[in-house]
Amino acid sequence: MNFFREDPNLSFILDQYLDEEFLEWAKKELDEYGELCANEIDERAVHTDRDGQPQLIKYDKMGNDISEVWVNEGYKQTVSETYNRGIVGYVHKDIPDLNRKGNYLYSYAQGYLLSQAEPGFYCPVTLTMATAYLLDHYGSEELKAAYLPHVLSTGEVELYEGATFLTERQGGSDVGANETTAVQGGDHYKLYGEKYFASNAGMCGVAMVLARTEDAPEGTKGLSLFLVPWRNEDDSLNGIQIRRLKDKLGVRAVPSAEVVFDGAEAYMVGEPQKGIHYMMEALNLSRVCNAVASIGIMQRAYLEARDYAYERSAFRNQLKDFPMIQDTLATLKAKQEVDTSSVFQLISLFDYVMNEPENTSEKDQALNRLLIALLKKETAEQAIHFSHESIEMHGGNGYIEDFVTPRLLRDAQVLTVWEGTANILGLEVLRLMKKYHIDKMFIDEIKGRIDQLPVSLSEEYGLIYGELDALKKQAARIAVMEDEEQTYYAKFIAEKMTKIFESVVALEDAVIGGERKLAIAKVFMQHTWKKDQPDWDQQSLAYYDMIVEQKTTSNV
Length: 556
Hints:
This protein is α+β, with helices and mostly antiparallel strands. It contains 19 helices and 13 strands. The chain is globular and about 75 Å long.
């Protein structure tokens, strides 16, 4: 098994976004990493989940609080092999073989492969990516010189994994209720307080933490961002204690903890009282990671369902020969490829907004935020759906821990919660409607893209035109409602926009991807817009060989 070779759609996507030199190098690296993820990293993930979960060593033999987190040796090997391939570093520094920086698109391609084996470990990678971004963009020259080479390490210096600590017990998503305080003492601060859901605790070298200086106002406007080293130069804890590790449903590879700061030495990052703005930028980066992890789980769940259907026999036939099974596999594969193409289209825009902010328009920035919210929500929910479908394909075996399917479902469930629930993401869409009139921007953008499609797809894009008209009327009606009433419809508007956006992506892929991508677009459109109506043409069956078995035919 090689996750990269199993997924020609990923190569199709890379061909669209990377120049020839970068593309050749990236495909070679991803081929090697795809094999590693499908074999050694996957095997270690099973061990970590079942028998080798992180453990808190609270005290040493003399009773001293050392708050140390133990991880197994296989986990450490995965850390080394993944970071050394530049999943974080090459976003910010040169790739030696190319003498140029990489980009988020390549990093997220690595994350997509990793998440098919170990989405739990992709969480620490995400937190390190966010730490690198915040330090690189807003840290002082002194902080960058001291810590950035370690956060970006690809093996040449000691790696400092990162973490971002926001959540407190009394606040949760209401970050403005945070109480952790920062007391100035010369050129640094001392932090006092606690963070209630601190992932990668004990494993990180540095953490980015929101805290409130003594004279700061209440609410989010009073929050500043601080870099907190986990340990002092003598390797002692930097005024930090771990109260306990969370006993989580899934993603057991990442230690999530309750962390207490008792005079932890900290250094302010950026301007005072802009901490929430900096952290929201990192939050959006993490939401893209969340979507990448989701499409990774979707792909692995599909592969497991497909392989089982081809191996298992029932009632004197292989499962794959039953029409209902063929419908499931073709529909899943169509949805997975369209969602993956949609996420990487977002990533291309995200790369531009993050790396060339001075050249981006207000529309670019607003659409970037919108697509992050839409696709984070959609892919997280689909990761759960795909895991469920894969379990059902396996029958009773799908519920047994000898198979990967139970872990996929457990790991997928966190993706709807991490970095914003569906309700929170719906509120983000409402904010964008009020601030930017994003509904109008979105409609204009989609209409412009539809105008570029060939007449041969008029039946499909005619349907989208109708949905755009409905969206326009619905958004206008919501705009005149009271604020609280608007929230009732937030998720509805988000879901409508998502369907429209992904439908256009599916049709655009069909234009450049040939008959198989056209088949995928037809099946996707049928399932998305008409799933409550019988498909009398049985498109998923008609195109099964092309979509699932990748055979070339001419019946589209």
